Amino acid sequence: MTRLLLRDCRLVVTMNDTGSEEPGLSILIEDGFIRRMERNLDVEADEILDCRDLVAIPGLINTHHHLYQTLTRAFPLSEGKTLFPWLRLLYPVWAGLDEDMIDASTRTGLAELALSGCTTSADHLYVFPPGSENFVDVQIAAARSVGIRFHATRGSMDLGERRGGLPPDNVVQPIDTILADSERLIHRYHDPNAGAMTQVALAPCSPFSVTPELMIESARLAREHGVRLHTHIAETVDEDRYSRNTFGSSPVGLLDRLGWVNGDVWVAHCVHPTGDDITALGRGQVGVAHCPTSNMLLGSGLAPVRALIGAGVRVGLGVDGSASNDGNDLRNEVKQALLTARVRDGVTAMTAREALRLATRGGAACLGRDDIGRLEVGAAGDVVLFDAAALPLAGGQEDLVAAVVLGASRPHTVLTHGRAIVREGHLVTLDEGQLAAAQNTAAARLMDRAA
After folding, report:
1. How remote is the C-alpha of 90 from its chain's centroid?
2. E strands, 51-117, where?
3. By the number of CB atoms within 10 A of the CB, which of 38, 197, 336, 416 ranks highest?
4. Distance CA 8, CA 400 (A)
5. Are 49 and 5 in contact (CB under 8 A)?
6. Please, what is the end-to-end C-alpha distance for the chain in angstroms?
7. H-state helical runs in 226-316
8. pLDDT tens digit string along 328-369?
9. CATH code, 60-366
10. DSSP H/E element including 414
């Protein structure tokens, strides 16, 4: 049994059902789970961390990403493009991906996320050129090396250009290949237990890159094995137009027809739902990964987060792909969610605590987990500690929660399942310099192939 004691925290932001915030609390983590939370807790432990100047919050949860895109962030030719032309530009570049590139980009993206306070991340890998049979396996191994919880969503596209879809034909796969690999990954990697470090979900990409048959068969397979479902939906006006012209309904209406408006589903973006769509999503207990920075960069719009929450939709946060965000900073995404809500719906639309709740309890709900996203006895020991005595929080002592959300503070320590993956602001599981060098080498090779 391993024991870690976080002694006398300056403040513990629990994100429990009542939203309690407790000064002076100590947290005892045993074998990855929180076992005691008390003041003046004096017990033996393998490690004792003095937390008198540290603010503890639950580990942040990233519900939508495309980690391979860290290889093409800030891509110069994509400047000023909306989603469809942006994808048409980048799909041929991504067709050159190989296993080494997947490894480097996954480590890079997850390491950056960890440095921002993220302890759990989903990833939506949906580009599978020839030679990609083990891409998801490579990702899972890379995630384990970083030490972050990982939800591998096995993405898929089967509708190439020749059949009226958006992606080129060399990055799509036949349905039988997709389903067989999906089932293989579930059997090999999915852990349904509390504290799981690896889970698998099935994730057909989007209405303009998959067939209804793939959506239906993926849902059947996922429900047969008890795993979740994920897809992009209602991201842009172009997508809405495509769906109405092709299927005679809004993108969310299409999901409903295909049996996807259900509590085992979370979707990304949801920028352009109708009022009826929002009602349906809430009634079905669907989750939404809100990706504010990406949606602004591509000019897609601002998701109606306040209305979604009001309808009972489970809203979490996602940094989205690093080619439409250009960073992997989930703490900053919390601030962006607050700012975009206020710009869209007024200055009272969201508080700092509500924004933080999206990235903790909201993210856990999207991923179907009740063991993360909160600091309570029985929950997993995913804790992020910020230094209240450090310069970025100086002057913010009256409301340290708002200061963490709105300021520029970086975590002092990040724990996943009681294991430190960040200490004193630096990654401890991998060498950051070596990681950057490997990533730059992989990105250069990808560009050479594209050229």
Report:
1. 21
2. 54-58, 60-62
3. 416
4. 16
5. yes
6. 54
7. 237-247, 251-257, 275-283, 292-297, 305-310
8. 999 999 999 999 999 999 999 999 999 999 999 999 999 999
9. 3.20.20.140
10. strand 413-416
3-state secondary structure of 13: strand
Place of tokens 């996807």: 260
What DSSP string describes 342-404?
Answer: HHHH-TTS--HHHHHHIIIIIHHHHTT-SSSSS-STTSB--EEEEETTSGGGTT-TT-HHHHH
In the chain, where the domains are located: 3-58+374-427, 60-366
Report pTM. 0.98
**Quick one: which of 66, 43, 49, 62 has its CA closest to 9?**
49
Two tokens at 42? 């004096």
Tens digit of each residue's pLDDT (9 = 90 or more) over 428-446 = 999 999 999 999 999 999 9
Sheet of strand 383-387, all strands in order from the earlier edge strand to the far edge: 21-22, 11-13, 54-58, 383-387, 413-416, 419-423, 426-427
**pLDDT for residue 325 is more than 90:** yes
Separation between Cα atoms, residue 271 and residue 370, nearest integer Å: 26
91-104 burial by CB neighbour count: b if 16+ within 10 A, else e?
A: bebbbbbbeebbbb
Using alpha carbons, select from 180, 145, 124 the residue that is nearest to residue 366.
124
CATH fold of the domain at 3-58+374-427: Urease, subunit C; domain 1 (2.30.40)
Give 388-399 pLDDT, tens digit per residue.
999 999 999 999
pLDDT over threshold 90, residue 77: no
